[in-house]
TrEMBL record:
Allows the formation of correctly charged Asn-tRNA(Asn) or Gln-tRNA(Gln) through the transamidation of misacylated Asp-tRNA(Asn) or Glu-tRNA(Gln) in organisms which lack either or both of asparaginyl-tRNA or glutaminyl-tRNA synthetases. The reaction takes place in the presence of glutamine and ATP through an activated phospho-Asp-tRNA(Asn) or phospho-Glu-tRNA(Gln). It comes from Alkaliphilus flagellatus. InterPro entries: Asn/Gln-tRNA_amidoTrfase_suB/E, Asn/Gln-tRNA_Trfase_suB/E_cat, Asn/Gln_amidotransferase, GatB, Gln-tRNA_amidoTrfase_suB_CS. It catalyses: L-glutamyl-tRNA(Gln) + L-glutamine + ATP + H2O = L-glutaminyl-tRNA(Gln) + L-glutamate + ADP + phosphate + H(+); L-aspartyl-tRNA(Asn) + L-glutamine + ATP + H2O = L-asparaginyl-tRNA(Asn) + L-glutamate + ADP + phosphate + 2 H(+). It is an enzyme of class 6 (ligase). Keywords: ATP-binding, Ligase, Nucleotide-binding, Protein biosynthesis. This is Aspartyl/glutamyl-tRNA(Asn/Gln) amidotransferase subunit B. The gene is gatB. The keyword Protein biosynthesis applies.
Amino acid sequence: MNTRTIIGLEIHVELSTKSKIFCSCSTDFGSTANSQCCPICIGMPGSLPTLNKKVVDYAVKAGLALNCNIARESKMDRKNYFYPDLVKGYQITQYDKPLCKNGFLKIGQGKNIKKIGIKRIHIEEDTGKSLHTNEDVTLLDYNRSGVPLIEIVTEPDLSSAEETKEFLESLRDILKYIGISDVKMEEGSLRCDVNINVATENGKSFSNITELKNLNSFKSVVKAIEFEENRHRLLLQEDKNTSKETRRWDDIANMTISMRSKETEDDYRYFLEPDIMNIALSEDEINKIKETLPELPRDKRERWATIFKLPEYDINILTSFLELANFFEETMSYYNSPKKLSNWIMTELLRRLKEEEMDISQLIFTPKDLAELLDLIDKGVINNFIGKKVFIEMINGEGKPKIIAEKNGWIQIEDIKVIDEVLRGILRENPQSVYDYRNGKDRAFGYLVGQSMKALKGKGNPQLINKVLKKLLEE
């Protein structure tokens, strides 16, 4: 049986505001349980919420980046349901008048570009967190209660696990670029629900929609979708159907597991939130937010492919986060060799940042300093091996690259008399290698070069060493 898969997403994104959506409590992650709470975010009777304007600004920013129409007027609503970590018995959210709607995000390349519709983006409060212990006791931490969220709801335009993964990766990059969330799935800043069903190619048979809840990694999203695709397809082949239900992904069992029957909108008994005034946005306010948008990842990648002629692999890494992309582009304003710079950043810089557990914003040296280092290597003032040593010193805050090289005596030896004298000594000490080379064993030459570099403490010009060594061996 030929079928097609139909996928829509509901994505919850924690916004990186300093305070919660309706109170001034901190949103810091990892604090002591229940240390960031007040009467408002734990739902005490008589407490009144006040909407954080920054939350509205961030949601509008996301909507503009995702090509949405921004509502000039919207409102907050109450969504009623019971759950232990939902302190008030309802969630303050948006129902029929979201801040943003009718947008899109492009995935794919070239002729295979596909627009995935964004149905709506609305703001809401997060719930608390249930902590299940080994003693069959559940503890509740309300630090997360009231943390601001945007919920991004797509149209059912995705048709495979791989498309979904690409969409989520593109969305993550955009949200991080525009600075509204750290989008760390491992900390719950980005959470994804998947609505999935399959249909026969002729469109006569559809499975019921299954909701896959709170998937917290791209790997889990892919595996859960693939499992459900197969489950739905097999049931249709047997003339059966899926239940309208919510399921979760079990990483250990490698399968989805039923949680509960699927709620409908009527179950939530939405009504207007009476304690918060309607949200009104002027054209000027929206335009001011639009002016703060950076160049978005897809646009940047297309521009770089044209002007820098870099491979797609390099571009994807260098544009993976805005600070790195900006660092590369600023360095390129002082140094005109994109591929050499790309190689150096991807091998040396990113490796050192990982080893030192540093963020690129913590670097003491500037893009101009890195350009100067690469220029010293290109001009033969220092060789590549010494360049890496200088780079470590730059990370440690030891100053400008040329000063570091001079201070440590690392400037490359160009004096042909000095090199000639050292190499004659190496040949005298290694008669067997000289014999092997003259009898056609090319590996002996590499050994002699290595010994020469060692004797010159890495400061010899490699091209000059090769030239002089060949001349001496032919005498």
